Every structure is written in structure tokens, then in C-alpha cells.
């Protein structure tokens, strides 16, 4: 196996984690990773020697994600949203989550995709501001404001969830 | 030591390892002088730890074979359906995000938006039930022995024609009632008890703009509220009965309340 493919294989766990934080549903997240890997292999020649495989792959996956989110937004999300998507969202398959984890994962899903991506890049994936700004293709100042707003929004959502923890709503 | 003014922006930079090392001492001093900012920083540290913990397990999951096959060039050509599948979840996420713009998504984790008015009614009703149903001697202000006065008094205060439902068929007798605050309005609480001492309460307000109905329950087996909102009034029945019994009692109470309003 050549070195490039080995390097890509080694990044799959990190790509899966990033995808999971963006999309929540496990199968959907793996579909995104699969699309990313397919695109990466087609463009293997674009990957310059010396460039971090992680940064290269994250950039590809982020573009796939953001392009799709934009298309979804343009089409008018409510009208074209199939029921199954909402169900997949509400009931992640085979994931054992503590209440705390579920709350923070739910909260993360509720903030805007741009802010979510920026926050996850830095807070979970550990990229520097410069690296994250480069991957997301935005100026450092934009990245910073997305992170700050994302954190603030997340905090509000978590406070909200904590307030409601005891009271669960079951629609009839 | 660098001297400069710090701001909330620096909390993020410090957290993300982007604050220059030679500013750390000054930053820490600034935090010590600003307890609010210090608390904010500590909160963000905790939130980040929770975020990392929530996704840490993903790294330990075995890599799905289908992903490995892509890299080894063995992947079968995917059907168009499966290729586009992931963005359905993205679309769902977009709806959630949009819902979150105005005052955060209520009832996070449930797909769709909740109405705060419903939350408020059920929460007030449950809170009142928790406090007063537990009282043995002071559960009510006006006892059932003075039922006519109770109904007239509460009707006048709340602004609805209230007739206390007869729940004898369901095994419950009226204990009495009391007047309660409900936001800027008033609410009537009617307390019932069965022969085993199990209590349920009715909570009625004159405030509501829209129609809705639903059930609130606590996960830990606390009381649940079945509520209805309609134009001009809201009603919640609260108790800790088994679900089927709770529903039956609530329906009976509600239909009688409705009939009373129109009488």
C-alpha cells in the first residue's frame, strides 16, 4: 500500500469524529466521510508532498458539508425535508449517550453550521486558529467571531436544557 | 509583563491556546479582578470538556469496512440514493439551527419547535401541585365543604366561569381549591384526592392565545401534567397516576370544565 493511502487511512477516525459532530446521525456522518474519501482519491495528485493529510482531508470534507448545507438552505429546508431525516436526527442509531453528552450533542446541532464547524475544529479537533481558518476558507477574524458566538450560543442552549432536564415533553 | 486591556475575546484565545505566552500573567490578573469573566472562562472550559467527552468514543470505534474499501479502491459504485443520504441529516440540522435563532430551540432533542406558553402553563401547574398537594392541613384555602363559595370566588378572580368537575366516577373527591399567581394573571387550583390519599390537581388560567394540547412528564417519576390551551383559557391536570388512569381522569375533568365554561 502506498504511503498516501496509508496516511489517509490513518485519518479516518478523526474524519468520522468531525463528521459526527457536524451531522450527529452515525450513518449520515459515515456517508459524508465516504464522499470525502472518494473525492480525495480522485484528487490524490492535488495533494502536495509535505501538506498535512489531516488538513487536506478536512478541507475536502468541510467543502462537501458546506456546499450541501447551502443547497439545502437555498431550496427551502422545510419543504424538502423528508420525514426520515427528522427521525434519524431525533434517534441516533446505536449510540449510547449519557444525558450530559446527549444534551451537548443536541445543543451543538442547534447552532448554525458555520459556527458549529468553527467551534468543533478548534475545540474538539484541536486545530489552531490559523489552521482552522485555512481549512474553512475564512479570515481569522471571522473564525474567531464564529467561535465566540458558537460558544455563547451553546452555553445558552445548555442552560436551557438544564432548566428543562426534569421536565420532559411528550407530545400527544 | 504586557500591559493591555483584555476582553471576552481573550477568554476564547486563552482557551484555544492562542494567547501569547507573555500575556498569560496579565490575563490571569485580569481574570482575578473580573469574577464574571473568570466564571465565563471556567464555564467554557467545562463545556469544551463535555464536548470532547461526547465525541471521544468515535475515535475508538472500528473503522467501517466500507470506508476502508474506498481507500483500497475496492468500493462498489454507490447508488445515488446512498450518496445523497448524509445531507438529509444536514437538512434536518439546518431546520434546527434556524429554529434556534429566536430564543433558542425549546425542548432540544425533539424535532420541532415548542411553544413557551405551553411550557409555562405546565410548569406552573406542576410546581403548584408539588407544593400544595404535599400539604396535609394547608393544601387548600377554601375546602370542598364550601364548594359554592369556592367556585364563585375563583371564577371572579380568574375571570372564567369555573365549575369544579365531579370526578367521583374516577374515584376522586374534591378537597378544595386556592388562588395562585400565573405570570401576570391568576390561576385557580382545584385539588382532588382518592381513598388511598393519592392527589391530583386542576390548574386553570384565563390566559392563552392559541390552541394546543399535550403531556408533560418528569423522567424521574414525578408528577406529569396533561394540558389543554384554547382561546382564552388554559387548563392542566397534574398527578402521578399511571398513564392510562391519568388520561382518563384528565379527559373527564377537562370535558366537565369545558361544559362549565359554557353553562
**Kindly, what is the distance between the CA atoms of the first and last residues of chain A, rounded to a whole number of angstroms?**
56 Å
Largest sheet of chain A: none
* Biggest interface and residues each: A-B, 89 and 72 residues
Q: How many distinct domains of chain B?
A: 3
CATH top level of the largest domain in chain A? Mainly Alpha
Q: Radius of gyration of chain A from the CA trace?
A: 17 Å
CATH topology of the largest domain in chain B, which one? Phosphorylase Kinase, domain 1
Series of H and E elements of chain A: HHHHHHHHHE
Low-confidence stretches of chain B: 78-84, 94-115
Strand order of the largest sheet of chain B: 1-2-3-4-7-6-5
Q: Proportion of β residues of chain A? A: under 5%
Taking all Cα atoms into account, the compactness measure Rg of chain B is 28 Å
Sheet with most strands of chain B: 7 strands, antiparallel
- Give the helix/strand class of chain A: mainly alpha
Beta fraction of chain B: 15-25%
Note the gap between the termini of chain B. 79 Å
**Oligomeric status of the shown chains?**
heterodimer
CATH superfamily of the largest domain in chain B: MucB/RseB, C-terminal domain
Organism (chain B): Mesorhizobium mediterraneum
Transmembrane segments (chain B): 86-106
Protein name (chain B): Anti-sigma factor
Keywords (chain B): Membrane, Transmembrane, Transmembrane helix
Main features:
heterodimer, A: 172 residues, mainly alpha, Rna Polymerase Sigma Factor, Chain: A, globular, B: alpha+beta, Phosphorylase Kinase, domain 1, 3 domains, seven-stranded antiparallel sheet, 9 helices, 43% helix, elongated, transmembrane (chain B), membrane (chain B)
What does this protein look like?
The complex is a heterodimer of chains A (about 170) and B (about 260). Chain A has about 170 residues and is mostly helical. In chain A, about 75% of the residues lie in helices and about 0% in strands. In chain A, helix 2 crosses helix 3 (about 55-75) and helix 7 crosses helix 9 (about 140-165). Chain B has about 260 residues and is of the alpha+beta class. Chain B has three domains: about 10-60, no CATH class; about 65-100, no CATH class; about 115-260, Phosphorylase Kinase, domain 1 (2-Layer Sandwich). Chain B has nine helices and seven strands, in the order H-H-H-H-H-H-H-E-H-E-E-E-E-E-E-H. Chain B has helices at about 10-15, 25-35, 35-55, 65-70, 80-85, 85-100, 115-130, 145-160, 245-260, and strands spanning about 140-145, 175-180, 185-195, 200-205, 210-220, 225-230, 235-240. The longest helix of chain B has 22 residues, at about 35-55. The N and C termini of chain B lie far apart (about 80 Å). Mean pLDDT of chain B is about 80; it is low at about 80-85 and about 95-115.
Amino acid at each position: 500500500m502506498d504511503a498516501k493511502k496509508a496516511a489517509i487511512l490513518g485519518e479516518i477516525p478523526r474524519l468520522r469524529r468531525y463528521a459526527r459532530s457536524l451531522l450527529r446521525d452515525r450513518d449520515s456522518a459515515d456517508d459524508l466521510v465516504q464522499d470525502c474519501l472518494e473525492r480525495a482519491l480522485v484528487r490524490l495528485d492535488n495533494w502536495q508532498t509535505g501538506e498535512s493529510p489531516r488538513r487536506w482531508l478536512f478541507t475536502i470534507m468541510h467543502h462537501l458539508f458546506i456546499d450541501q448545507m447551502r443547497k439545502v438552505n437555498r431550496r427551502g429546508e422545510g419543504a424538502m425535508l423528508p420525514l426520515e431525516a427528522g427521525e434519524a436526527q431525533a434517534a441516533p442509531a446505536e449510540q449510547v449517550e449519557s444525558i450530559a453528552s446527549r444534551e451537548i450533542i443536541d445543543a451543538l446541532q442547534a447552532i448554525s453550521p458555520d459556527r458549529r464547524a468553527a467551534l468543533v475544529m478548534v475545540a474538539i479537533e484541536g486545530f489552531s486558529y490559523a489552521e482552522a481558518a485555512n481549512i474553512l476558507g475564512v479570515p481569522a477574524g471571522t473564525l474567531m467571531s464564529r467561535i465566540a458566538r458558537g460558544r455563547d450560543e451553546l452555553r445558552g442552549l445548555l442552560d436551557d436544557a438544564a432548566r428543562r432536564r426534569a421536565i420532559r415533553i411528550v407530545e400527544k | 509583563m504586557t500591559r493591555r486591556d483584555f476582553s471576552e475575546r481573550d477568554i476564547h484565545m486563552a482557551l484555544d491556546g492562542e494567547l501569547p505566552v507573555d500575556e498569560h500573567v496579565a490575563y490571569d490578573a485580569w481574570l482575578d479582578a473580573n469574577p464574571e469573566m473568570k466564571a465565563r472562562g471556567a464555564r467554557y472550559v467545562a463545556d469544551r470538556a463535555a464536548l470532547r467527552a461526547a465525541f471521544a468514543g468515535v475515535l475508538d470505534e472500528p473503522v467501517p469496512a466500507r470506508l476502508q474499501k474506498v481507500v483500497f479502491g475496492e468500493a462498489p459504485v454507490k447508488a445515488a440514493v446512498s450518496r445523497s443520504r448524509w445531507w438529509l441529516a444536514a437538512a434536518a440540522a439546518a431546520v434546527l439551527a434556524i429554529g434556534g435563532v429566536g430564543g433558542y430551540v425549546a425542548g432540544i432533542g425533539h424535532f420541532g419547535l415548542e411553544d413557551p406558553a405551553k411550557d409555562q402553563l405546565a410548569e406552573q401547574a406542576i410546581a403548584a401541585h408539588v407544593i400544595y398537594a404535599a400539604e396535609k392541613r394547608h393544601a387548600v384555602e377554601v375546602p370542598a365543604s364550601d364548594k359554592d363559595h369556592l367556585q364563585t370566588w375563583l371564577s371572579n378572580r380568574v375571570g372564567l366561569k369555573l365549575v369544579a368537575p365531579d370526578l367521583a366516577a374516577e374515584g376522586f373527591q374534591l378537597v378544595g381549591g386556592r388562588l395562585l399567581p400565573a405570570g401576570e394573571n391568576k390561576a385557580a387550583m382545584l385539588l382532588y384526592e382518592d381513598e388511598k390519599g393519592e392527589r391530583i390537581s386542576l390548574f386553570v388560567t384565563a390566559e392563552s392565545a392559541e390552541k394546543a394540547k399535550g403531556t408533560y412528564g418528569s423522567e424521574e417519576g414525578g408528577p406529569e401534567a396533561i394540558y389543554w390551551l384554547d382561546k382564552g383559557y388554559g387548563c392542566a391536570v397534574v398527578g402521578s397516576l399511571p398513564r392510562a388512569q391519568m388520561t382518563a381522569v384528565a379527559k373527564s375533568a377537562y370535558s366537565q370544565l369545558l361544559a362549565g365554561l359554557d353553562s
